[in-house]
Each structure stands twice: as C-alpha cells, then as structure tokens.
Design goal:
It is a single chain. By secondary structure, the protein is mainly alpha-helical. Helices cover 42% and strands 4% of the residues. It has a single domain, classed as lambda repressor-like DNA-binding domains (434 Repressor (Amino-terminal Domain), Orthogonal Bundle), CATH 1.10.260. The protein has a two-stranded antiparallel ribbon with strand order 1-2. Helix 2 crosses helix 3. About 5% of the residues have low confidence.
C-alpha cells in the first residue's frame, strides 16, 4: 500500500492568474455566448470559461486570436494588470448607449 500524501483541496472558481481581462465584457457586447466565441476562435468552451474566470492563463496564440476577433490591436488591451483597465473599444456602429442597452437585454434574458 502506498501513500501519495495529503489530498489536495480543489477550490472552485478562485482566480489564480495575475491579470484581469475584459473578455466577458467584449463577448457580451458582441452578443456571443461562451460556446459561440470558443467556436469562432478555435478553442474549447472549457478553455474559454477558465480564461474568462481567470483560472487559466491563455497561451499567446489564443490571446492573439481573441484580441483579433474583437479587432483589438494589442493583447494588452484585452488582458491587463489589475487596477489599470484599458479603454473598451466598441464594435463598429455601436455607441456606448447601444452597448449598455444590449448588455442589459442580454442579462435580463437569463
């Protein structure tokens, strides 16, 4: 009989990545579900879920694909240091008022 040490506690949804991201905000502004965005950028739903919740650091190519999908010129504008959020770039033709109404409609559907 072998002993492998104490059991590790799994802490669900506790951020472990030292960056913030505006991924959920952009996804909602574009009216996409996590499943839709994951399919569009070629990653699994679970990977996107973990990145959005700050449980997983995205690989560089994944971060670049996400930034490109939202027409963001640099990855740093999507993933940033806590306390320094970058300006949000709205989709073409969408004003801040339209984005706010769209986000409110999406959250009321749940």
């Amino acid at each position: 009989m072998s002993w492998s040490g104490p059991a590790k506690k799994k802490v669900k949804d506790r951020p472990i990545v030292p960056f913030e991201n505006s991924l959920k905000l952009y996804r909602q502004l574009y009216g996409l579900t996590q499943y839709q965005l994951a399919a569009k950028v070629g990653i699994s739903y679970n990977t996107l879920y973990q990145i959005e919740r700050r449980l997983l650091m995205p690989k560089l190519d994944t971060a670049v694909r996400l930034a490109r999908y939202f027409n963001i010129p640099s990855v740093e504008e999507l993933f940033f240091t806590p306390g320094t959020p970058p300006p949000i770039r709205l989709p073409q033709g969408m004003s801040a008022v339209t984005a706010h109404v769209s986000q409110a409609e999406n959250s009321s559907e749940k």
